[in-house]
Protein backbone atom coordinates (compact mmCIF):
# COMPACT_ATOMS: atom_id res chain seq x y z
CA UNK A 1 0.00 0.00 0.00
CA UNK A 2 1.32 3.42 -0.99
CA UNK A 3 0.22 6.58 0.79
CA UNK A 4 0.52 10.05 -0.66
CA UNK A 5 2.60 12.29 1.60
CA UNK A 6 0.62 15.15 3.16
CA UNK A 7 -0.17 16.68 6.53
CA UNK A 8 -3.41 14.72 6.55
CA UNK A 9 -1.69 11.36 6.07
CA UNK A 10 1.37 12.07 8.22
CA UNK A 11 0.16 10.18 11.31
CA UNK A 12 -0.59 7.09 9.25
CA UNK A 13 3.04 6.89 8.07
CA UNK A 14 4.52 6.41 11.55
CA UNK A 15 5.00 2.68 10.97
CA UNK A 16 7.07 3.34 7.84
CA UNK A 17 9.16 6.40 8.72
CA UNK A 18 10.11 8.63 11.63
CA UNK A 19 7.42 11.31 11.67
CA UNK A 20 7.57 14.59 13.58
CA UNK A 21 5.83 14.67 16.93
CA UNK A 22 5.77 18.45 17.28
CA UNK A 23 2.77 20.64 16.51
CA UNK A 24 3.47 22.24 13.14
CA UNK A 25 0.71 24.78 13.75
CA UNK A 26 2.70 26.10 16.71
CA UNK A 27 5.86 26.73 14.66
CA UNK A 28 6.76 30.33 13.95
CA UNK A 29 9.07 31.47 11.15
CA UNK A 30 12.57 32.72 11.85
CA UNK A 31 14.49 31.84 8.67
CA UNK A 32 13.95 32.51 4.98
CA UNK A 33 16.03 30.07 2.98
CA UNK A 34 16.77 30.83 -0.66
CA UNK A 35 17.51 27.80 -2.84
CA UNK A 36 15.41 24.88 -1.63
CA UNK A 37 17.28 22.07 -3.33
CA UNK A 38 18.14 18.56 -2.25
CA UNK A 39 21.17 19.55 -0.23
CA UNK A 40 19.27 22.08 1.86
CA UNK A 41 16.51 19.57 2.54
CA UNK A 42 19.06 16.90 3.57
CA UNK A 43 21.10 19.28 5.69
CA UNK A 44 19.87 22.54 7.25
CA UNK A 45 16.22 21.44 7.15
CA UNK A 46 17.13 18.13 8.83
CA UNK A 47 19.01 19.85 11.66
CA UNK A 48 16.06 22.16 12.29
CA UNK A 49 13.62 19.26 12.22
CA UNK A 50 15.74 17.47 14.83
CA UNK A 51 15.73 20.61 16.95
CA UNK A 52 11.95 20.94 16.78
CA UNK A 53 11.56 17.26 17.72
CA UNK A 54 13.65 18.00 20.82
CA UNK A 55 11.12 20.65 21.81
CA UNK A 56 13.51 23.51 21.07
CA UNK A 57 13.60 26.53 18.75
CA UNK A 58 10.00 26.45 17.57
CA UNK A 59 10.26 30.10 16.53
CA UNK A 60 12.89 29.23 13.91
CA UNK A 61 10.78 27.49 11.26
CA UNK A 62 11.76 27.74 7.61
CA UNK A 63 10.16 29.69 4.80
CA UNK A 64 11.44 28.68 1.39
CA UNK A 65 12.28 31.03 -1.46
CA UNK A 66 13.93 30.86 -4.86
CA UNK A 67 14.88 33.01 -7.81
CA UNK A 68 15.73 30.38 -10.44
CA UNK A 69 13.26 28.91 -12.96
CA UNK A 70 13.59 25.43 -11.41
CA UNK A 71 12.50 26.79 -8.03
CA UNK A 72 8.92 27.10 -9.27
CA UNK A 73 8.70 23.35 -9.83
CA UNK A 74 10.12 22.66 -6.38
CA UNK A 75 7.64 25.05 -4.79
CA UNK A 76 4.70 23.50 -6.61
CA UNK A 77 5.77 19.99 -5.67
CA UNK A 78 6.36 20.74 -2.00
CA UNK A 79 3.20 22.81 -1.64
CA UNK A 80 1.18 19.84 -2.91
CA UNK A 81 2.51 17.77 0.00
CA UNK A 82 2.29 20.53 2.64
CA UNK A 83 6.03 21.24 2.48
CA UNK A 84 6.89 17.81 3.89
CA UNK A 85 9.96 15.91 2.69
CA UNK A 86 10.94 12.26 3.03
CA UNK A 87 14.68 12.07 3.74
CA UNK A 88 16.09 8.58 3.20
CA UNK A 89 19.49 7.82 4.72
CA UNK A 90 21.19 4.86 3.08
CA UNK A 91 24.31 2.80 3.62
CA UNK A 92 25.38 -0.81 3.16
CA UNK A 93 23.49 -1.83 6.29
CA UNK A 94 20.11 -0.56 5.14
CA UNK A 95 17.90 2.48 4.74
CA UNK A 96 16.00 4.70 7.14
CA UNK A 97 13.28 7.23 6.27
CA UNK A 98 12.49 10.41 8.18
CA UNK A 99 9.78 12.90 7.28
CA UNK A 100 10.83 16.48 8.00
CA UNK A 101 8.28 19.18 8.68
CA UNK A 102 10.26 22.30 9.54
CA UNK A 103 9.31 24.23 6.40
CA UNK A 104 5.97 25.97 6.79
CA UNK A 105 5.77 28.08 3.62
CA UNK A 106 7.42 28.65 0.26
CA UNK A 107 7.25 32.09 -1.33
CA UNK A 108 6.36 32.44 -5.02
CA UNK A 109 9.50 31.67 -7.01
CA UNK A 110 11.13 34.75 -8.48
CA UNK A 111 8.55 37.09 -6.94
CA UNK A 112 10.89 39.83 -5.76
CA UNK A 113 8.23 41.82 -3.93
CA UNK A 114 7.00 38.80 -1.97
CA UNK A 115 10.54 37.72 -1.05
CA UNK A 116 11.75 41.21 -0.12
CA UNK A 117 8.60 41.88 1.90
CA UNK A 118 8.97 38.68 3.93
CA UNK A 119 12.67 39.29 4.50
CA UNK A 120 11.85 42.78 5.73
CA UNK A 121 9.72 41.56 8.63
CA UNK A 122 11.24 41.52 12.09
CA UNK A 123 10.51 37.85 12.84
CA UNK A 124 12.98 36.82 10.13
CA UNK A 125 16.34 36.86 11.86
CA UNK A 126 18.35 34.71 9.46
CA UNK A 127 18.41 34.79 5.65
CA UNK A 128 20.15 31.60 4.56
CA UNK A 129 20.96 30.39 1.08
CA UNK A 130 22.13 27.46 -0.97
CA UNK A 131 22.66 28.89 -4.44
CA UNK A 132 25.60 26.68 -5.59
CA UNK A 133 29.21 27.65 -6.10
CA UNK A 134 28.42 29.47 -9.33
CA UNK A 135 25.78 31.79 -7.86
CA UNK A 136 28.04 34.41 -6.30
CA UNK A 137 29.04 36.42 -9.39
CA UNK A 138 32.78 35.97 -9.00
CA UNK A 139 35.40 37.15 -11.46
CA UNK A 140 38.41 35.16 -12.66
CA UNK A 141 40.30 36.00 -9.46
CA UNK A 142 37.51 34.73 -7.25
CA UNK A 143 36.33 38.20 -6.23
CA UNK A 144 32.83 39.66 -6.51
CA UNK A 145 32.27 41.04 -10.00
CA UNK A 146 30.22 44.27 -9.82
CA UNK A 147 30.18 44.47 -13.62
CA UNK A 148 28.32 41.20 -14.09
CA UNK A 149 25.20 41.99 -16.18
CA UNK A 150 22.81 40.59 -13.56
CA UNK A 151 24.41 42.66 -10.80
CA UNK A 152 24.56 45.77 -12.97
CA UNK A 153 20.86 45.34 -13.75
CA UNK A 154 19.96 45.14 -10.06
CA UNK A 155 22.13 48.16 -9.29
CA UNK A 156 20.28 50.14 -11.96
CA UNK A 157 16.85 48.97 -10.79
CA UNK A 158 17.09 48.24 -7.07
CA UNK A 159 13.34 48.30 -6.49
CA UNK A 160 12.78 45.33 -8.80
CA UNK A 161 15.76 43.03 -8.15
CA UNK A 162 16.23 39.74 -9.96
CA UNK A 163 19.20 38.29 -8.06
CA UNK A 164 19.41 36.85 -4.56
CA UNK A 165 21.75 39.63 -3.55
CA UNK A 166 19.51 42.33 -4.96
CA UNK A 167 16.66 41.00 -2.87
CA UNK A 168 18.79 40.81 0.27
CA UNK A 169 19.96 44.40 -0.23
CA UNK A 170 16.41 45.64 -0.84
CA UNK A 171 15.16 43.91 2.32
CA UNK A 172 18.04 45.23 4.42
CA UNK A 173 17.35 48.74 3.12
CA UNK A 174 13.72 48.44 4.23
CA UNK A 175 14.73 47.15 7.66
CA UNK A 176 17.19 50.01 8.06
CA UNK A 177 14.55 52.57 7.14
CA UNK A 178 12.08 51.01 9.57
CA UNK A 179 14.58 50.74 12.41
CA UNK A 180 14.38 46.92 12.41
CA UNK A 181 17.49 44.97 13.36
CA UNK A 182 19.08 43.39 10.29
CA UNK A 183 18.97 39.66 9.76
CA UNK A 184 22.11 37.55 9.64
CA UNK A 185 23.09 36.30 6.17
CA UNK A 186 24.10 32.66 6.39
CA UNK A 187 25.57 30.99 3.33
CA UNK A 188 25.22 27.20 3.26
CA UNK A 189 27.17 26.83 0.04
CA UNK A 190 30.22 24.71 -0.47
CA UNK A 191 32.73 27.46 -1.15
CA UNK A 192 35.75 28.62 0.85
CA UNK A 193 34.86 31.33 3.36
CA UNK A 194 31.28 31.38 2.18
CA UNK A 195 30.38 34.14 4.63
CA UNK A 196 33.15 36.38 3.35
CA UNK A 197 32.05 35.72 -0.23
CA UNK A 198 28.41 36.47 0.62
CA UNK A 199 29.43 39.69 2.40
CA UNK A 200 31.38 40.84 -0.66
CA UNK A 201 28.36 40.26 -2.91
CA UNK A 202 25.81 41.95 -0.65
CA UNK A 203 27.93 44.95 0.30
CA UNK A 204 29.37 45.26 -3.20
CA UNK A 205 25.93 45.55 -4.76
CA UNK A 206 24.65 47.80 -1.96
CA UNK A 207 27.50 50.26 -2.47
CA UNK A 208 26.61 50.57 -6.14
CA UNK A 209 23.05 51.44 -5.17
CA UNK A 210 23.74 53.65 -2.14
CA UNK A 211 27.20 54.11 -0.62
CA UNK A 212 25.75 54.83 2.84
CA UNK A 213 23.61 51.68 2.70
CA UNK A 214 26.65 49.66 1.76
CA UNK A 215 28.60 50.99 4.73
CA UNK A 216 25.65 50.35 7.07
CA UNK A 217 25.38 46.75 5.91
CA UNK A 218 29.14 46.28 6.29
CA UNK A 219 29.00 47.60 9.85
CA UNK A 220 25.77 45.96 11.03
CA UNK A 221 25.09 42.72 9.17
CA UNK A 222 26.76 39.44 10.17
CA UNK A 223 27.95 36.92 7.58
CA UNK A 224 29.21 33.87 9.48
CA UNK A 225 31.40 31.40 7.64
CA UNK A 226 30.28 27.79 7.69
CA UNK A 227 31.35 24.36 6.50
CA UNK A 228 28.60 22.03 5.33
CA UNK A 229 28.89 18.38 4.39
CA UNK A 230 26.53 15.63 3.34
CA UNK A 231 26.63 13.64 0.11
CA UNK A 232 23.23 14.19 -1.47
CA UNK A 233 22.58 13.03 -5.05
CA UNK A 234 19.89 14.41 -7.30
CA UNK A 235 16.40 12.93 -7.16
CA UNK A 236 15.23 10.95 -10.18
CA UNK A 237 12.74 8.28 -11.11
CA UNK A 238 14.92 5.72 -9.30
CA UNK A 239 14.47 7.48 -5.95
CA UNK A 240 10.78 8.20 -6.47
CA UNK A 241 10.14 4.55 -7.23
CA UNK A 242 12.26 3.32 -4.34
CA UNK A 243 10.55 5.45 -1.69
CA UNK A 244 7.24 3.93 -2.80
CA UNK A 245 8.54 0.36 -2.95
CA UNK A 246 10.61 0.45 0.23
CA UNK A 247 8.48 2.64 2.48
CA UNK A 248 5.06 2.88 0.84
CA UNK A 249 5.36 6.66 0.66
CA UNK A 250 4.33 8.58 -2.44
CA UNK A 251 6.67 11.58 -2.24
CA UNK A 252 7.05 13.50 -5.48
CA UNK A 253 10.51 14.78 -4.54
CA UNK A 254 12.17 12.66 -1.83
CA UNK A 255 15.77 13.22 -0.82
CA UNK A 256 18.27 10.36 -0.62
CA UNK A 257 21.52 10.89 1.25
CA UNK A 258 24.22 9.25 3.31
CA UNK A 259 23.86 8.92 7.10
CA UNK A 260 26.89 11.16 7.70
CA UNK A 261 26.30 14.87 8.11
CA UNK A 262 28.44 17.72 9.42
CA UNK A 263 27.91 21.45 9.93
CA UNK A 264 30.53 23.75 11.44
CA UNK A 265 29.55 27.40 11.96
CA UNK A 266 31.18 30.54 13.29
CA UNK A 267 29.00 31.79 16.14
CA UNK A 268 28.18 35.25 14.82
CA UNK A 269 24.41 35.81 14.94
CA UNK A 270 23.60 39.24 16.45
CA UNK A 271 19.87 38.80 15.82
CA UNK A 272 19.84 35.42 17.52
CA UNK A 273 19.95 31.85 16.28
CA UNK A 274 18.38 28.47 16.98
CA UNK A 275 20.29 26.34 19.56
CA UNK A 276 21.63 24.02 16.89
CA UNK A 277 24.49 22.88 19.09
CA UNK A 278 21.87 20.71 20.77
CA UNK A 279 21.54 18.64 17.58
CA UNK A 280 25.16 18.33 16.52
CA UNK A 281 26.17 21.60 14.88
CA UNK A 282 29.69 22.65 15.87
CA UNK A 283 30.01 26.34 16.72
CA UNK A 284 33.62 27.51 16.51
CA UNK A 285 35.53 30.82 16.52
CA UNK A 286 37.07 30.12 13.11
CA UNK A 287 35.76 27.62 10.58
CA UNK A 288 38.82 27.86 8.31
CA UNK A 289 40.62 24.64 9.38
CA UNK A 290 37.47 22.52 9.01
CA UNK A 291 36.60 24.17 5.73
CA UNK A 292 40.02 23.61 4.18
CA UNK A 293 40.06 19.99 5.33
CA UNK A 294 36.71 19.27 3.73
CA UNK A 295 37.30 21.20 0.52
CA UNK A 296 40.66 19.61 -0.18
CA UNK A 297 40.16 16.05 1.06
CA UNK A 298 36.48 15.47 0.23
CA UNK A 299 35.71 17.86 -2.64
CA UNK A 300 39.18 17.47 -4.08
CA UNK A 301 38.79 13.71 -3.70
CA UNK A 302 35.53 13.80 -5.62
CA UNK A 303 37.35 15.52 -8.48
CA UNK A 304 40.11 12.93 -8.38
CA UNK A 305 37.75 10.01 -8.94
CA UNK A 306 35.29 11.83 -11.21
CA UNK A 307 37.19 12.14 -14.47
CA UNK A 308 38.91 8.76 -14.71
CA UNK A 309 35.59 7.14 -13.81
CA UNK A 310 33.75 9.25 -16.38
CA UNK A 311 36.25 8.31 -19.07
CA UNK A 312 35.88 4.63 -18.18
CA UNK A 313 32.07 4.80 -18.57
CA UNK A 314 31.43 4.17 -14.86
CA UNK A 315 27.99 5.39 -13.84
CA UNK A 316 27.82 5.42 -10.03
CA UNK A 317 30.38 6.76 -7.56
CA UNK A 318 30.39 3.57 -5.49
CA UNK A 319 31.16 1.64 -8.70
CA UNK A 320 34.13 3.95 -9.25
CA UNK A 321 35.36 3.06 -5.77
CA UNK A 322 35.05 -0.63 -6.66
CA UNK A 323 37.46 -0.11 -9.58
CA UNK A 324 40.96 -0.81 -8.23
CA UNK A 325 42.65 1.80 -10.42
CA UNK A 326 40.25 4.61 -9.53
CA UNK A 327 40.38 3.78 -5.82
CA UNK A 328 44.15 3.39 -5.97
CA UNK A 329 44.49 6.74 -7.74
CA UNK A 330 42.47 8.40 -5.00
CA UNK A 331 44.40 6.73 -2.17
CA UNK A 332 47.83 7.67 -3.49
CA UNK A 333 47.06 11.24 -4.46
CA UNK A 334 45.34 11.90 -1.13
CA UNK A 335 48.20 10.42 0.90
CA UNK A 336 51.03 12.01 -1.03
CA UNK A 337 49.73 15.32 -2.37
CA UNK A 338 46.42 16.43 -0.84
CA UNK A 339 46.39 15.52 2.87
CA UNK A 340 49.94 16.91 3.42
CA UNK A 341 48.73 20.40 2.37
CA UNK A 342 45.98 20.50 5.02
CA UNK A 343 46.99 22.28 8.27
CA UNK A 344 46.07 20.71 11.63
CA UNK A 345 42.36 20.70 12.51
CA UNK A 346 41.21 20.80 16.15
CA UNK A 347 40.37 17.37 17.56
CA UNK A 348 40.76 15.74 14.14
CA UNK A 349 43.14 13.12 12.76
CA UNK A 350 43.45 13.91 9.06
CA UNK A 351 44.29 10.37 8.06
CA UNK A 352 41.24 9.07 9.93
CA UNK A 353 39.17 11.77 8.22
CA UNK A 354 40.37 10.53 4.84
CA UNK A 355 39.46 6.95 5.75
CA UNK A 356 35.98 8.19 6.65
CA UNK A 357 35.74 9.97 3.28
CA UNK A 358 36.85 6.85 1.42
CA UNK A 359 34.11 4.83 3.11
CA UNK A 360 31.52 7.47 2.33
CA UNK A 361 32.46 7.48 -1.36
CA UNK A 362 32.12 3.70 -1.42
CA UNK A 363 28.61 3.69 0.06
CA UNK A 364 26.73 1.40 -2.37
CA UNK A 365 23.26 2.71 -1.56
CA UNK A 366 23.58 6.41 -2.25
CA UNK A 367 23.30 6.27 -6.02
CA UNK A 368 25.44 9.35 -6.49
CA UNK A 369 26.52 9.58 -10.11
CA UNK A 370 29.93 10.11 -11.61
CA UNK A 371 28.40 12.60 -14.01
CA UNK A 372 27.30 14.77 -11.08
CA UNK A 373 30.87 14.79 -9.77
CA UNK A 374 32.16 15.75 -13.21
CA UNK A 375 29.73 18.66 -13.46
CA UNK A 376 31.01 22.25 -13.54
CA UNK A 377 34.72 21.55 -13.42
CA UNK A 378 35.50 25.08 -14.61
CA UNK A 379 34.01 26.35 -11.37
CA UNK A 380 35.10 23.57 -9.05
CA UNK A 381 38.69 22.94 -10.12
CA UNK A 382 39.84 26.48 -9.13
CA UNK A 383 38.32 25.95 -5.68
CA UNK A 384 39.03 22.31 -4.91
CA UNK A 385 42.20 21.34 -6.82
CA UNK A 386 44.26 24.26 -8.12
CA UNK A 387 44.93 25.86 -4.70
CA UNK A 388 46.39 22.53 -3.56
CA UNK A 389 48.62 22.48 -6.64
CA UNK A 390 49.74 26.04 -5.85
CA UNK A 391 50.65 25.09 -2.28
CA UNK A 392 52.60 22.06 -3.45
CA UNK A 393 54.54 24.16 -5.94
CA UNK A 394 55.28 26.82 -3.33
CA UNK A 395 56.64 24.12 -1.03
CA UNK A 396 58.78 22.70 -3.81
CA UNK A 397 56.85 19.43 -3.59
CA UNK A 398 55.82 17.10 -6.40
CA UNK A 399 52.57 17.47 -8.34
CA UNK A 400 52.57 14.32 -10.48
CA UNK A 401 49.19 13.09 -9.25
CA UNK A 402 47.48 16.48 -9.30
CA UNK A 403 48.82 17.13 -12.80
CA UNK A 404 47.33 13.80 -13.88
CA UNK A 405 43.99 14.75 -12.30
CA UNK A 406 44.02 17.98 -14.29
CA UNK A 407 44.95 16.13 -17.48
CA UNK A 408 42.06 13.72 -16.91
CA UNK A 409 39.67 16.68 -16.61
CA UNK A 410 41.02 18.06 -19.89
CA UNK A 411 40.66 14.65 -21.54
CA UNK A 412 37.06 14.42 -20.26
CA UNK A 413 36.22 17.82 -21.72
CA UNK A 414 37.28 16.50 -25.12
CA UNK A 415 33.81 15.01 -25.05
CA UNK A 416 34.47 11.33 -25.67
CA UNK A 417 35.09 8.42 -23.31
CA UNK A 418 37.72 5.73 -23.79
CA UNK A 419 35.10 3.53 -25.45
CA UNK A 420 34.24 6.25 -27.95
CA UNK A 421 30.92 7.19 -26.33
CA UNK A 422 29.98 10.84 -26.52
CA UNK A 423 30.10 12.84 -23.29
CA UNK A 424 27.15 15.20 -23.25
CA UNK A 425 27.93 18.80 -22.27
CA UNK A 426 28.55 18.84 -18.52
CA UNK A 427 29.72 22.33 -17.67
CA UNK A 428 28.17 25.80 -18.05
CA UNK A 429 31.30 26.65 -20.06
CA UNK A 430 31.32 23.46 -22.15
CA UNK A 431 31.21 25.36 -25.45
CA UNK A 432 34.44 27.04 -24.44
CA UNK A 433 36.11 24.06 -22.78
CA UNK A 434 35.61 21.47 -25.50
CA UNK A 435 37.44 23.35 -28.29
CA UNK A 436 40.32 24.10 -25.92
CA UNK A 437 40.49 20.46 -24.82
CA UNK A 438 40.62 19.39 -28.46
CA UNK A 439 43.40 21.87 -29.18
CA UNK A 440 45.27 20.60 -26.10
CA UNK A 441 45.48 17.10 -27.61
CA UNK A 442 48.30 18.43 -29.77
CA UNK A 443 49.28 21.42 -27.62
CA UNK A 444 48.79 20.81 -23.87
CA UNK A 445 49.75 24.42 -23.11
CA UNK A 446 46.46 25.53 -24.67
CA UNK A 447 44.57 24.09 -21.70
CA UNK A 448 46.76 25.77 -19.09
CA UNK A 449 46.40 29.09 -20.91
CA UNK A 450 42.91 29.49 -19.41
CA UNK A 451 43.99 32.22 -17.00
CA UNK A 452 40.69 32.45 -15.15
CA UNK A 453 41.00 28.79 -14.16
CA UNK A 454 44.71 28.16 -13.67
CA UNK A 455 46.19 31.60 -13.00
CA UNK A 456 49.85 31.46 -12.00
CA UNK A 457 49.77 27.66 -11.69
CA UNK A 458 49.36 27.41 -15.45
CA UNK A 459 52.61 29.33 -15.97
CA UNK A 460 54.71 27.26 -13.58
CA UNK A 461 57.09 25.16 -15.72
CA UNK A 462 57.09 22.29 -13.22
CA UNK A 463 53.33 21.92 -13.40
CA UNK A 464 53.19 22.59 -17.13
CA UNK A 465 55.69 19.81 -17.79
CA UNK A 466 53.92 17.33 -15.51
CA UNK A 467 50.55 18.19 -17.07
CA UNK A 468 51.84 17.83 -20.64
CA UNK A 469 53.46 14.50 -19.81
CA UNK A 470 50.24 13.21 -18.29
CA UNK A 471 47.96 14.43 -21.08
CA UNK A 472 50.22 13.10 -23.83
CA UNK A 473 50.32 9.74 -22.07
CA UNK A 474 46.53 9.62 -21.75
CA UNK A 475 46.21 10.11 -25.50
CA UNK A 476 49.00 7.72 -26.48
CA UNK A 477 48.48 4.94 -23.92
CA UNK A 478 44.95 5.33 -22.57
CA UNK A 479 43.48 5.92 -19.13
CA UNK A 480 43.95 2.37 -17.82
CA UNK A 481 47.64 2.20 -18.68
CA UNK A 482 48.37 5.65 -17.23
CA UNK A 483 46.48 4.96 -14.02
CA UNK A 484 48.20 1.59 -13.67
CA UNK A 485 51.64 3.18 -13.86
CA UNK A 486 50.70 5.87 -11.37
CA UNK A 487 49.04 3.53 -8.87
CA UNK A 488 51.96 1.10 -9.01
CA UNK A 489 54.41 3.91 -8.34
UniProtKB/TrEMBL annotation:
Domain Mannitol dehydrogenase N-terminal residue range list: 30-277
Record's keyword annotation contains ATP-binding: no
Keywords for this protein: NAD, Oxidoreductase
Keyword NAD in record: yes
Membrane-crossing segments per the record: none
Cross-referenced SUPFAM superfamilies: 6-phosphogluconate dehydrogenase C-terminal domain-like, NAD(P)-binding Rossmann-fold domains
GO BP terms, alphabetized: mannitol metabolic process
Cross-referenced Pfam families: Mannitol_dh (PF01232), Mannitol_dh_C (PF08125)
Domain spans labelled Mannitol dehydrogenase C-terminal: 286-475
Any GO molecular function: oxidoreductase activity, acting on the CH-OH group of donors, NAD or NADP as acceptor
PANTHER family given in the database record: MANNITOL DEHYDROGENASE 2-RELATED (PTHR43362:SF1), MANNITOL DEHYDROGENASE DSF1-RELATED (PTHR43362)
Protein name as annotated: Mannitol dehydrogenase
Amino acid sequence: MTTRLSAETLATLADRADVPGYDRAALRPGIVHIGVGNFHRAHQAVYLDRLFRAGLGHDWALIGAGVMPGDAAMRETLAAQDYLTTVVEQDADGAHATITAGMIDFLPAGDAEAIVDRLSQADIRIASMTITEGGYYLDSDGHFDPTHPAIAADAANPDAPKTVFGMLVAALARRRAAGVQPFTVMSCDNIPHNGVVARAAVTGLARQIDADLGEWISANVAFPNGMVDRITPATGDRERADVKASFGIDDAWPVYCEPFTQWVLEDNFPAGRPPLEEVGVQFVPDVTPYELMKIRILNGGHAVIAYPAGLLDIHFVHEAMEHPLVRGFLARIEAEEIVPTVPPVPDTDLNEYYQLIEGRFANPKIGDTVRRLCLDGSNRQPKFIIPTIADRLTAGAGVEGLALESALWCRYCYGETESGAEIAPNDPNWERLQPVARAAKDDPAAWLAMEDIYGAVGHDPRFAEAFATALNALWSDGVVAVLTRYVNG
